[in-house]
Amino acid sequence: MMRDITIGQYYPAPSVIHRLDPRVKLVGTVVFIIMIFCIGNLAGYVLATLCLAGLIRLSKVPIKFMLKGLKAIFFILIFTAVLNLFLTPGTAVFQWQFIRITQEGIVMALKMAIRLTYLILGSSIMTLTTTPNHLTDGMEKGLGPLKKIHVPVHEIAMIMSIALRFIPILMEETDKIMKAQQARCADFESGNIFQRAKSLVPVLVPLFISSFRRANDLAMAMEARCYHGGEGRTKMKPLKYYSRDYVAYIVILIYIIAIILLNIFFDPIQTMIFARLGL
Amino acid sequence: MNIVKAAHLIYDYITQDDETGEETVSRAIDDVDLDISAGDFIAILGHNGSGKSTLAKHMNALLLPTGGAVWIKNMDTRDESQVWDIRQTAGMVFQNPDNQIIGSIVEEDVGFGPENIGVPTDEIWQRVNESLEAVGMTEYRQHSPNKLSGGQKQRVAIAGVMAMRPECIVLDEPTAMLDPNGRKEVLKTVRKLNKESGVTVILITHYMDEVILADKVFVMDDGKIVMDGMPREIFSQVEMLKSLRLDVPQVTELAYELKKAGVPLPDGILTIDEFVQALENVKRPEISNAQKKEGDAHVDPS
């Protein structure tokens, strides 16, 4: 059962988003996250929401999977919202002893909550539609230019893909070691959290030693198969841009421009409309 | 032509005592001469610690000799500029299948070697297809290696080596961690590669029954080659093998014991079929005679 564990959270589906080049998805995600923090007014948020909803529809991933990612940051979300709510100075709308809620606080708390939620949703779209291997490939190729300033891009990507390959193996091994120790009356289930953590030490020591042995073996096997770093290496599955990838880049560019334009022009329009309506 | 040649090969392991810092030198390989001609199926036998794995690593330039020299197709392993050519010529398969598979998908792993030596993309695919076909793993090409059995993983590892188009494959105890079925699978694959693709195979093992079909067997003990010859010649020396802490195949041992008890059987019987054949050739009365003798032997101690 441990063998079947999925790494990352890839959700296979036949969608355009799945077929996009991982580089496009990486760039898109980074742009989306940066733009979230650049949005200055309501219209920007509306646009971001529309885009996000559109992307989720296109990706054919059930919304349930998207929201799963939010569960993990639920407490952080509440925490930042509450902090912003109570600690932002400004005009008070509610006051009771030392507790003070300000108008600015409410706006700020809402903003932060929305930003964090969108950040997680945006990056889940990438991780749900891209296999970890594709992602490392994309990183290697996309960060290629950094090689000029001596960033070991190929090595980092190689480390990541090997780590991904060995996660299930090491999990199986952990399982085996734990069972072997349970057979000799080791107790992993009772006691408080500290006692339980302590009882894991005898599991970690052999696990640590065996992963070093594995690393040593693997290094030798790689050398035996002529591995000598990224230089002079060809690719079995080279990344290639298709027309859909160029389209995606253009969409990303349009998104950036739209957000910037909204930031500049929407506020005056908004005040104008509000003034007309007599608000 | 000699594909692998070793002359006066010596290799010392230096181990350092953690507390005293004292260095002790232990000799893993002691003055080994070796000549292996292309296309042969060679087996190297030896119990644990006999130096057979160390010898294997010399054939791939993973270890360099302390003394003497090793040549792979006339390339000296000490010559650093030729190390990648050597590793391409003599591929290596290791004991633990999990620790030598790099890719997360079978076909990607097979492509790892060709990628490293800079083969163009189209040719990588061609080589991957051919190698997977040769080891009979084509239908598993999209699978994750974690879901394969030990024998299948080891076949993938062999395909990974084959994709580099080596002239010689060194297998360092490839079956030690496998179940009997996996062992059979791997051996069948290796034999097929040797026969059909003409690849020189150097099989290192401590299972006697794996070496029966080899063209030539070397037996190692304590860093030295102590016996060499055809499997039949080796297995006819049962006493000698036992003194080297090696087991002979069951049927060979049975024949040997029967012969000791007086049944006129030939030396070095390797397979059950051969044994049956030999028994049929023995005349009936002599068998009963021998049985009597054995019977006596049983009675005597009581």
Automatic annotation (TrEMBL), chain A:
Keywords attached to this entry: Cell membrane, Membrane, Transmembrane, Transmembrane helix, Transport
Recorded GO MF terms: transmembrane transporter activity
Signal sequence residues: none
Cell compartments where the protein resides: Cell membrane
Location, primary (coarse class): membrane
Gene Ontology CC: plasma membrane
Membrane protein topology class: Multi-pass membrane protein
Function: Transmembrane (T) component of an energy-coupling factor (ECF) ABC-transporter complex. Unlike classic ABC transporters this ECF transporter provides the energy necessary to transport a number of different substrates.
Family recorded in the similarity comment: Belongs to the energy-coupling factor EcfT family.
HAMAP family noted in UniProt: EcfT
Entry protein name: Energy-coupling factor transporter transmembrane protein EcfT
Organism: Catenibacillus scindens
Taxonomic lineage from the root: Bacteria, Bacillati, Bacillota, Clostridia, Lachnospirales
TrEMBL record, chain B:
Bilayer topology: Peripheral membrane protein
Main subcellular location: membrane
GO MF entries: ATP binding; ATP hydrolysis activity; ATPase-coupled transmembrane transporter activity
Protein's UniProt keywords contain Translocase: yes
Residues in ABC transporter domain copies: 4-247
Pfam short name (any one): ABC_tran
Cited SMART domains: AAA
Keywords: ATP-binding, Cell membrane, Membrane, Nucleotide-binding, Translocase, Transport
Cell location: Cell membrane
GO cellular component: ATP-binding cassette (ABC) transporter complex
PANTHER family, alphabetized: ENERGY-COUPLING FACTOR TRANSPORTER ATP-BINDING PROTEIN ECFA1, HEAVY METAL TRANSPORTER
Record family assignment: Belongs to the ABC transporter superfamily.
Protein name per UniProt: Energy-coupling factor transporter ATPase
Organism lineage string: Bacteria, Bacillati, Bacillota, Clostridia, Lachnospirales
